[in-house]
Amino acid sequence: MPMLERPPRRRRRATATWALLALACCTAGADEEVVHRERSLYQTILITQEPSRLCMKFTIRDRERNQSCTDPRSPKRMVFTYTRMMMASLLLTPDPGSVLVAGLGGGTLPTALADLLPGARIEIAEIDPAVVQAARTYFGFETDDRLRVHVSDARVFVKRALARGEHYDLVLLDAYSGDYIPEHLMTVEFLAEVRALLAPGGVVAANTFATSILYDHESETYRAVFGEFFNLRLPDSNNRVILASNSPLPTRATLRDNARSWHRRLRAYDVPIASYPSRLSRKVDWDDTKRALTDQYSPANLLRAR
Amino acid sequence: MSLELLGGRILAPWFGSSIYVWGSIITVFMLSLSAGYLIGGRLSLRAPTLAKFGWIFVLAALVLAPVVYLAEPAMAWVFERIEDPRYGSLAASLVLFVVPTVVLGAISPYAVRLLVRFREESGNVAGTLYFVSTMGSALGTLATSFYFVLWFEMDTIVVTLAGVLLVLGAAGVGARRLDHDGNDHADA
What is the ipTM of this complex? Predict the structure, then answer.
């Protein structure tokens, strides 16, 4: 009997420990309950319930990070700054007919885009089937004819889509789970494939890092493929969003026009789109002597640790 | 081991970096090494000399270096024909890594034959060889994954590995004495 009694107690303690750890590192002191914990092929997935939000978190190393959260009381609201920043892509391509999203998370971005772009076809490449399942179970993520999810490595998906002759108006790269970077998704060759996948005037938005010398290497990598691009950085976020296109970048006036046309529709999502045009910068604010990352040279995780 | 690690890197752009890609690579390396052991053992039955031993290294270098040039077209070829990335990565690993790994596998048993002079010491010689070879693998793994990938391009590392094999092979072919201490091959 003692053997039978012990595990539950231990599990409870483990849950409490996890919650404490999570509190200590990531949340603003709110009570947090781990609703679901699962070791998938690629990571540990945690679903946590806090008083005002439900989150999906990935743990690969010892640290964890809020990956995707929703506020059940206003489910449309985008909880994270970086998610809102990704919506700035609509300033460059205001009405994309086809969208590819690399990395599902809780499905916040693709679901929002499906709502906002009723005519668009949206495809998602997510490597981890457990993430897809968790998004369905806990975040109400639903697929249909025009919102489809493919369990696939994004690099493989892009190559296959190229081989099929497909094109996308908008590609969102959001595949950096937790603290680990899939290194084959941050190289000149990969970005060249993504660029080739873009329809004329197509746009790429990438959620990336604003800290460490990886910032320099990554910026050079994007510049090597796209030339000039927009950088979106905000004071309240450690992320930066890169916005690049296979066409010349739009003028500030065009950005403002697009912001005006989107402003009202994005209010429910809490996206301050009107404030973004003035924040999009073409300035080279990185060390441009750092080398671009390639399939031959891509120690992104080692560079990030420096 | 260094090559095995780089194998993961080489396949990732075409087949991703999922667990089955590693499964493919490890499977192919294990199969190839086992075949190499068998072949090396058989070869050692036919008038073994240090010169012939050196030629195995030279051959390994010659079949390893082309991997650098073959990789892209070979993977593109497989990618077009096999949709499932599990079998795609397995097929690509077979095409790229079987030949060099079989040749590298032949080295150890041949070395045992050269180094063993009395039956009584055979276990000791084999033990020492396993030690050197596995220790070399461990150091090669560590150096490659911690540092080489940060300092060098992948092709540079592969070509350097081939270069080291070539130099060791040339030394073997050139050396006269059969009991020359030729077991420093292992970290390849």
Answer: 0.82
